[in-house]
Amino acid sequence: AIESALRPSDQSVSCRSGNRSMRVAENERRKKAEEPFVLALKYFSDVQTGTPVTGNDEFEKNLVLVERVAYSNGLSPEAISIMLEFAMSLRMGSSPCVRVLKCLLPSSVVPQEAVVRGVVWLNVGKMPITTQVLFLKWVLTVFDMIDAKDQLRAVYGFIFSFITEENLCPFVCHLLYLLTRKESVRAFRVRKLMDLQSKLGRQPFLLHLLSLYKVFSPELVALSVPSRVKSGFKNHNSPWKVALAAVQRRNGAQIASAISLALPVGDRTSSRKRKHGHLQIPVLTSVTNKQPHTEQNSRKKLIPLVQIQSFDQLLKTMHQIELPAQMGSLLGSGLALQYLDCVQEESALLRLNFWLGCALQEEFLFGSDDDAAHIPEETLQFLDKLLSAQHFLQEGFSSSDAFLYKFLNVWDGSLMRPQILGLLSNIPVIPALRKLLFEPLTQLFFTSSLFFKCGLMECLNSMLVKWLTWHSVYALEDDLDISLGSHTSVNMTLSGFKDSVMELVHFVGRLASVGLQLEGCHTLLLSFVLDFYGTVCDTFLKFGLPLVVMPPAGVFYPAFFAADPISLDRLAHIMHRYRVNLTSAKNQEKATEAFHISRQTFQEFNHYLVFMVNCLWNSRMFKPGMDVRLSEELLQKSNVPQYWTRFDLIHHPALMSYAFDFHQKCWPGRKEMDLNSIKVPEPWSWYLQYLFNQGFDGLKDFFQSNINQHSSSGSAEAC
Amino acid sequence: MDASEGLAIVNRMVETVALSDDADPGSSTTLKETSPTDMLRLKQQMSNQCFEMEVQLNAGKNKRSCSASEAERDLPDFMSELEEAKVVHFNSTLALHRMQMWHALEENMNQSDPEEESLKFVSDRCMFLCSRIKKLQDEASKLQEEITETQKNRLEIKRQTHEKMKEMEGLMSKMEHPDSEKYKAALEKGQANLEKYKKMAIMTQNVLQSILTACKVNWLDDPKLQEIAMTLEEFSIPD
């Protein structure tokens, strides 16, 4: 009895103590798990110089522990500092270096002091060359994760001194490219690079660095650098790429998502198996890590761009702004783009284009084939952000244009279609359009679906509008040189520009003709084609470009024979606009001798006009001399009575329903439909009114401007 | 004359020689006497004919290569002719088909049968949809015009911004100190001195960097040395 009385209270006490002991045990267990890692780090920070490596079990155990932590979650900044110091100081010789460097996967940031120490040790110690190369590759791989860059810039000269070592040269050039500012460009450094070039040849890594130097100080670099160096820097991240991606994925929820690996270009000979990297726009950071404090003795206080929060602030401090170290981050912020556009700093643009080009190439041109069908969400978001940046600036980037020319040759037409077509529409006018753009597009067009055809029509329409808008704003009256983008250096004369526009219009005309034939005059495609010609017919009056191009027969006639009234009405509207543009052009020509529309254009227009009026108004179809040639006997065989009236306003396929409706409304009692009875003058004018009231403004404008109403049979007033 | 003809002639000549051989088996001496001259004559004829054949062959070759390049030049013209013919054919066929189809529809509308009912229904629905489409298209084109107008204005502002920035830069570079005339000489001398000492300072910095590099010391461990070494890239006076 006493036992049973005791037990419950015992249980409660033991429960509570049991709970407490569980928590304590848990904490102790956790501490025990961390303890070995902390002890391992302590080992590496305290180990004496000269301790042997071979046969050293304690060393092996600790290193394995560190590696395990590194490959699972990455190393903390302190751990990186300790391990890097251990490796670069060569306290246990150079044999453990490679292993340590390979496991230096950061979990969040890399402290820049550690990197600076590493650089200094690189000079001091006698590391084998391959290990030195590995260290530099590591710095380049984690460059975006280094928390600040001001100390690294302070040791620019020391880094530069490694450039003479042939094996290190490519990676040193890459690192310098990322760190260079205007103040870093010194005459003796330029001289050194030129000497190296004469020794090693025109290597791309030297050219990149020299072109950046040239942007900062053109007077110091006399060499002519090609505007687009084909290849980038050498691949540097392969030892860490896969592991780093895994670590980042695991830590994804914890760290800010924008601190990721923006991968610069690799070379084509690298491994076949490649994963899609994280294609993200880096976050905007400042170069220094210190809190800004007022310095009395500095004459020019530079404010990092990341601290500018509003447009007013931007305006006030316009000339004191310091650009971030990673130019790609400018794409993410509207304010940053605004600043870039205003200030037009060439070095920033050069580096931005370089980064963008590398990112796009790496992601899409060297991607793996196994998951080619599935594009990760982040990639689409990246492209969307790029598109909105281009839309904001109202022009494209030269690197994205260059990427598109290459990509079009391998595109299948459906992957990321809206984004690619959007980027395409931002391509500026260039001389070599036919080879770079039109040929691959032709191939894609004729082998693609209806929706791609429509999408491409829309894209080319948008491209034309952008060219014309640019021209109408930037081409001044007496200035024949038009610069085509604030970032491009290509200038074109007015006639060159007109030629390019004409080439585009002819190209689209050809695509449209054959496309309509292939798709059997599909109404959707016809609608997009007519949209395009809706832009073309108004080039003179709306955009001020003295150019008139008529649609080809392969577009005009399918539109005229369309079975839906919308297309017919649009065609009428377009013809009306052509007439307005042509008459205005003719008047201007008489007045100012500004430009000359060729006789052929007028002839073509008149030909179409006469055809339309004859068919629709005068019921005179299938007459000899028209483009639609059908022999008399074939027409007889078709058993269609009065075939010459078959495309007039009453019998036209698009308008017949309206004729029926009108007939019923006009003569509700009549049982038999006789459409020819509408031809009588009284119902005819009612019918016209009825038709135009259906919203067919195009037809209304067309007939009002072209038909001389006073004569009973309409005669077209030719231009 | 071409190769085969030439060969035939040679064959005939050989035959005649053979026949002439056979014809006079007895008069071998006369044959032997005449055969060298005959042989020579034959040889001469054959070489003439070979030459002619060669000329013919070469002429044929040249003609062929000439036409290949000509064909390439004419190719785009032929292609566009072909395309034009296709277009005309397509348009004519389209016109014919549409005409026949809608004539048949018109005939059908006159017969009151259930088909006519459904045709009427479909045609009414089409008209309704067309008017809706027209309204939407009008709205869309109005909006598109506004968008284009806005884009034009934005682009104009961008251009003006760039112009103003250039003007500003020009003004800033031209900004002179009010008493510049007076102190011009002094200013120039001062600037020349500044340049000289700046060059010296930069060179000294470079030399010190090189010395530190060459000594292969870890200057980070000495606080004073570190302080100095970290300032070797800086030059507080801007260019």
UniProtKB/TrEMBL annotation, chain A:
Domain of life, per lineage: Eukaryota
In which residue ranges is the amino acid composition biased (Polar residues)?
9-20
Question: Where does the record say this protein resides?
Answer: Chromosome, Centromere; Nucleus
Query: Which GO biological-process labels does this protein carry?
Result: CENP-A containing chromatin assembly; mitotic sister chromatid segregation
Q: Which UniProt keywords apply?
A: Centromere, Chromosome, Nucleus
Q: Which residues form a coiled coil?
A: none
Q: What is one term from the GO cellular component aspect held by the record?
A: inner kinetochore
List the residue ranges of the region (Disordered). Answer: 1-28
The answer to keyword Nucleus applying to this record is yes
UniProt entry tagged with the keyword Nucleus: yes
Where does it mainly reside? nucleus
InterPro entries assigned: CENP-I (IPR012485)
The Swiss-Prot or TrEMBL record describes its family as follows: Belongs to the CENP-I/CTF3 family.
Annotated protein name in UniProt? Centromere protein I
Please report the organism this UniProt entry assigns to the protein: Nothobranchius furzeri
Gene for this chain: cenpi
TrEMBL record, chain B:
The UniProt keyword set, sorted, is: Centromere, Chromosome, Coiled coil, Kinetochore, Nucleus
Any keyword rRNA-binding? no
Query: What is the annotated localization of this protein?
Result: Chromosome, Centromere, Kinetochore; Nucleus
> Organism source for this protein?
Nothobranchius furzeri
Give the record's family classification: Belongs to the CENP-H/MCM16 family.
Report domain Centromere protein H C-terminal positions: 38-233
- What's a GO biological-process term for it? mitotic spindle organization
Q: What is this protein called?
A: Centromere protein H
Chief place of localization: nucleus
InterPro entries (alphabetical): CENP-H (IPR040034), CENP-H_C (IPR008426)
From the UniProt record, list the coiled-coil ranges. Answer: 126-200
| GO cellular component terms, A-Z | kinetochore; nucleus
- Where in the sequence is the signal peptide annotated? none
Molecular function (Gene Ontology), one example: kinetochore binding
- Keyword Nucleus appears in the UniProt entry: yes
